[in-house]
Amino acid sequence: MRCKSRTGRRGRVAGVVTAAVVGFSTALYGAGAAGAAAGTPGVSEPSPPSLKFANPNSQALFGTAYKAALKNLLQTNTIGFDPAVYNKSGLMDPDVGILRAGGGYPQPWTRDASVNSWNAASLLSPAVARNTLWSAVDKDAAGRLRVQQDDQQWDQVIWVTAAWNHYLVTGDTAFLRDAYQAAAGTLTIREHATTAGYNSKYGLFTGASFFNDGIAGYPAPPADATESVSTGSMPWPGVASGMFLSTNEVYYAAYVNAANMAAKIGRPASEVASYRAKAARLKAAINKRFWNPRTGSYDYMLLADGTAGAYQEGTGLAFALIFGIANKSQARSILAHASEMTWGMPDTYPNWARYSDEQPGRHNAIVWPVVQGLWAKALAGQGAQGAFASETARLAKLGDGNSGFWEIYNGHTGVVDGGWQRLGDTVKFHWGSEPDQTWSATAFLNMIDSGLFGLDFGDRSLSITPTLPAGWGDVTLRGLRYRDATLTIALHGAGTKIRSFTIDGRRVHGHGVPASLTGAHTIDVTLAGAVDGDRDGDRVPDTRDRCADTAGTAALRGCPDPGHIEAEDALNTGGVKTNVNHAGYSGRAFLDGLWAQGAASSYVIHRETDKPGVGTITLRYANANNDARTMTLSVDGRKTRQIVLPRVSGSWDDWGTVTVGDIPVSGHDPVVTISYEPGDNGSINLDWLEFHDSAR
């Protein structure tokens, strides 16, 4: 339940379903940590693409996050594997790696494997994605392929949509034939299961919410006020027999995609029709049982006794839009009534009675980037430009401000936070949030690929229908490998209306790239119809906002005060992250993690002049070590001097300041960096930086 114990799980997602559906999900379970081993794949994958914005502020925010997300996917979390543990399908390539779930979670897990493949890996690392999908598959006694039968039965069908998407992206028909066997077998198992199976009374599937494998994701009932039975969700009878929005939506997607698979490989028409009929019945049941005209949205749950739960489930709302379960009227209503937190779409909402803003539940009123990614995908699909821009900027800021993509963040403050959980009357514990989470990184990659650039993979072509928000500026994605072609895609203007679409300078009708295309090609798309809003609330329209959504902007509120920048709003790398476990800090948080060489915190100083000058910098810091500490100060990448930070006291709750003068600066936006370099001894916490410019 990613709330899980170290040997348990967590909760994840991904997906797509329309006429040609595509979709995906979250955690690959069953293959234990003991089977994973660090290693370098022996088969080369395509070189990663690059993202470049003409607007330097957009590049600083989104370009930085994109580069970090690529590293997370293609380097940090691509690992070797033990065939004895993972290759139960017999279909894996031993010379290619797999994707682990992330730091703290060395397994792939079914949901993680599926959502990561669907979000990004099938496009950016297809051989690794293929291996990762097969790592979640084994065989029954008769040798038939099936998604492995583990203790998280309700999420097995997520694999079906990820597999169909993998075919659409790669055109791998050999993979598709085997994938259909696994899909058909798994759906049959689930339809006849006594646990997490089909409830004929309601026409819905039972079992936990797709994402919420921890009981913190459920109100009482089916939980109780102290979570006395288990931290997991399925040991609770009310959860096991209950019906939840997102789970039934991924079953719907699985049926649609199984039908697509069957049709593509030439199965009998009756077989295809059977899956489509099951999908239609399930879609009707979802709308009958979960749509709530009073709230203008979908309910989260329906318990076996008929008790409904008019709560918000982030993945459930996203899936309703992505998979086309909601009609146009319902979609408009969802967008009008959805509640987001300061830092993004929460998992479940609002707080259950046993949690609070001060102690949010691990799966309740808290932000998981994997949910943000799905919601952003849904927003882009609905043409909600401003909301898409804000959600994408939030996740970019969370990644840029915390040395990459963590598992969970506080929805109000954006601070790295694993959330709270209970186990009986006397035990209430605070979970950690793990670093380097693959599905957090692939969520951002999908925001760029399917949201910003509007990449939509079909059987015969790749459609490109971008969403380029006002103020972001022109942007180019270079070196994108699509089947046998290498694409450069350049977006110009802003909005969602395509005014011009050219391939290699020749105007083409429609907005598609043929799947048969080979070699290198350049696609130019000119857009119009931008909504010129004021996303950061600084009373400057987005098209004229010099600092809209830039790195270093506190909570999306425009340019920071050049004289005072909170450390949590800096670009932080090398293990530096936000924290609140000591008192006395200002702003939303302070920074820790400045404990090893390579740790750095960078501040964009927005000056009112571009003339060269000198400035004075003051740092507020904590040092409870027994001696003075040193760090290196750089300006625009040039080392200026080593600074000394004296011991403040023996308590990390006490803060001091140090001021350094004669700092050379030039240009409108110099970058001041505090870093742990060779010759430094670091090990401090940072609260804020103040800058005073003598040129002003």
What's this model, at a glance?
With about 700 residues, the chain is of the alpha+beta class.
Please, could you describe this protein's structure?
InterPro entries: 6-hairpin_glycosidase_sf, 6hp_glycosidase-like_sf, CBM35, CBM6, Galactose-bd-like_sf, MGH1-like_GH. This is Glycogen debranching protein. Keywords: Signal. Pfam families: CBM_35_2 (PF18099), MGH1-like_GH (PF22422). Residues 563-692 form the CBM6 domain. With 696 residues, this protein is α+β, with helices and mostly antiparallel strands. The chain has 2 domains: 13-449, Glycosyltransferase, CATH 1.50.10; 560-693, Galactose-binding domain-like (Jelly Rolls). The protein has 14 helices and 38 strands. The strands form 12 sheets. The protein has a 6-stranded mixed sheet. Strands 28, 30, 31, 33, 36 and 38 form a 6-stranded antiparallel sheet that branches. A hairpin with a 5-residue loop joins strand 18 (420-422) and strand 19. Helix 12 packs antiparallel against helix 13. The longest helix has 22 residues, at 269-290. The radius of gyration is 25 Å and the shape is globular. Mean pLDDT is 90; it is low at 3-41 and 551-557.
